[in-house]
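wait is this the right file?? whatever heres the structure
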């Protein structure tokens, strides 16, 4: 079981004038019996627009239907541009998403005003970077950011790894424990728990974790060569205690934003010239572009491209 396939989205019509549907996300933990609603999921968000169209919650307009979605976890708006054909969301297309098999119809997503999704602040601790004295491990320099979701950025070098690791990272119990302790400390700093140990059970999906390093060559999950010159920064995500096999979309928006704000560890490592809207992220499954619109250090919106298709309908019967 992996965290990226253990997710629930609950959709309902919205009574807000500027929103079409409300969307509530739940992350089902893969280690302990817990369903966590403390954060949003960008990848599941991409299916909300097509679902809303196909269920008749939003009128289908060809060739593109714009669906405005309120994520109730973060109280933030996501705007999705969905290709439509014959009154339904298009499924087939030639869009390729790294880490997703096959091709699909392109969905353009924009996370509006993503800063402070849970804590109310872009930098929850009031600092762009700081040193955590990690119990049992010593100092680590981090950036704690709340943009689409709360997240903590850690340098690969501070963890004693290269930053190009794939699933073998999950077997490195010492490094994974190091990461979880840093995440736990960030959870306290965000005000989600009282002490870092509680994050393991009380805040398993927030904050997210991104491990950052300078652009470098590596082989991705599909065995393809990824070149340093094709990325602005090399990243790996840890989600609910395991390496993410691609890179969470909300974390992509946060990473792109951090890369464009001077003083964060992401900005210091990234080769992006800080003026370019598009930041190229080299993750476990390849390269993802994130388009970040800034006004000074204010993040106006972050855009990414995704695909989504319905694979099953069914009923689950539960006891009252």
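ok assuming it is, sequence goes like this
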């Amino acid at each position: 079981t992996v965290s990226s396939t253990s997710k629930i989205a609950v959709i309902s019509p919205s009574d807000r004038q500027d929103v079409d549907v409300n969307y509530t996300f739940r992350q089902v933990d893969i280690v302990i019996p817990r369903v966590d609603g403390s954060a949003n999921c960008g990848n599941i968000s991409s299916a909300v627009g097509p679902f809303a169209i196909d269920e008749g919650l939003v009128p289908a307009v060809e060739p593109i239907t714009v669906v405005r979605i309120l994520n109730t976890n973060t109280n933030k708006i996501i705007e999705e541009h969905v290709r439509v054909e014959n009154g339904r969301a298009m499924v087939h297309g030639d869009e390729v998403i790294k880490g997703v098999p096959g091709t699909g119809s392109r969905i353009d997503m924009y996370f509006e005003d993503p800063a402070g999704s849970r804590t109310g602040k872009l930098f929850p601790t009031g600092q762009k970077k700081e040193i955590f004295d990690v119990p049992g491990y010593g100092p680590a320099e981090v950036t704690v950011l709340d943009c689409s979701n709360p997240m903590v950025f850690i340098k690969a070098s501070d963890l004693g790894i290269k930053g190009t690791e794939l699933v073998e990272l999950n077997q490195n119990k010492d490094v994974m424990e190091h990461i979880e302790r840093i995440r736990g400390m960030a959870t306290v700093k965000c005000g989600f728990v009282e002490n870092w140990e509680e994050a393991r059970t009380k805040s398993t999906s927030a904050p997210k974790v991104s491990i950052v390093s300078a652009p470098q060559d590596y082989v991705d999950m599909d065995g393809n060569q990824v070149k340093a010159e094709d990325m602005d920064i090399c990243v790996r995500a840890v989600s609910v205690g395991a390496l993410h096999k691609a890179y969470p979309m909300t974390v992509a928006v946060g990473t792109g934003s951090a890369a464009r704000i001077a003083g964060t560890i992401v900005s210091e490592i990234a080769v992006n010239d800080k003026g370019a809207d598009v930041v190229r992220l080299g993750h476990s499954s390849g390269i993802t572009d994130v388009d970040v619109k800034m006004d000074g250090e204010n993040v106006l919106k972050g855009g990414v491209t995704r695909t989504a298709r319905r694979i099953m309908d069914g009923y689950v019967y539960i006891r009252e």
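The first strand starts at residue 7 and ends at 13. so i think its the right one actually
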